[in-house]
Amino acid sequence: MKKWITVFTYIVLTLAAIIFKQQLLDWIQYGHISLLIVTLLAALIPVIPYGVVGGIIGVKYGLLIGSFINLSISTFAAALMFFLVRGVFKSTGRNYLTRYNRIEKLTSLFEKNAFLSILSLRMLPFVPAQIVNIFSAISQVSFGSFLLATLVGKIPVMLVYTLIGKQVVTDSSQLIVTIGLYGIFLLIVYGIYRYWLKKSVKLNES
Questions:
Q1: What span, in angstroms and rounded, lies between the C-alpha atoms of 62 and 68?
Q2: Whole-angstrom Cα distance, residue 63 to residue 40?
Q3: Are 129 and 119 in contact (CB under 8 A)?
Q4: 70 and 39 Cβ atoms separated by less than 8 Å
Q5: DSSP tag of 173
Q6: Which is it for the CA torsion 36, 71, 64, 163, positive or negative?
Q7: Residue 39 and residue 20: Cα distance in Å, rounded?
Q8: Positive or negative, the Cα torsion across 78, 134, 117, 191?
Q9: How many C-beta atoms lie closer than 10 Å to residue 102's C-beta?
Q10: φ and ψ at residue 149, rounded to 5 degrees
Q11: What is the pTM of this model?
């Protein structure tokens, strides 16, 4: 249910951006620091879907610079949350994970394949980023693996967020093509991830 609420929110906000395109452009052209602060807050506290803020960054700074900003801020926010959770809640969270046998097995599998697990989950935007951050922090995953997998895994989605934001106000006719191609990409990634996960579970149980 939550997934469909998120999709509906994106659709409504995208339509609003198209309808109020000029007002949006007038607002975006003022202020750099405030926009970057809002972007960081959106990455840390998902009150507004990050794709909306990432799209605004794309409108203001263009595809290349906008993608770089989105990637840098979202990765920094993930690293910051990782350190905060690991420093404050690791022991408590670890005790919770070991309390349930099924979760403990999942955690063990996650830790053995940390880089690929995080990389795959980062490429799937319907998986909440905060859950990946928190789960990684309370597990035995090294910060290096977490950071590299996060950085690489976020590249496709940040490019798409930035491109869609730019297209909303410049060439909305290309939106369907972009979303369609990205949807195909997600299906491929999800299919590969499910296949790899099932295979890993079988190997772990044998």
A1: 10
A2: 18
A3: no
A4: yes
A5: G
A6: negative
A7: 21
A8: negative
A9: 7
A10: -65, -40
A11: 0.77
Q: What is the pLDDT of residues 77-110, one digit of tens each?
A: 999 999 888 888 776 766 766 676 667 777 787 8
CA gap 39, 76 in Å, rounded = 11
Report the b/e string of 156-191 with b at 16+ CB within 10 A.
bbbbbbbbbbbbbbeeeeeeeeeeeebeeebeebee
> Looking at the chain, how many residues does it have?
206
Distance CA 74, CA 40 (A): 7
* pLDDT confidence of residue 14: 60
Q: List pLDDT tens digits, range 114-124.
A: 898 999 999 98
Assign 117 to helix, strand or coil. helix
Here the tokens at position 150 are: 């996060």
Model confidence pLDDT, tens digit, residues 43-83: 887 666 788 788 888 888 888 999 999 999 999 999 999 98
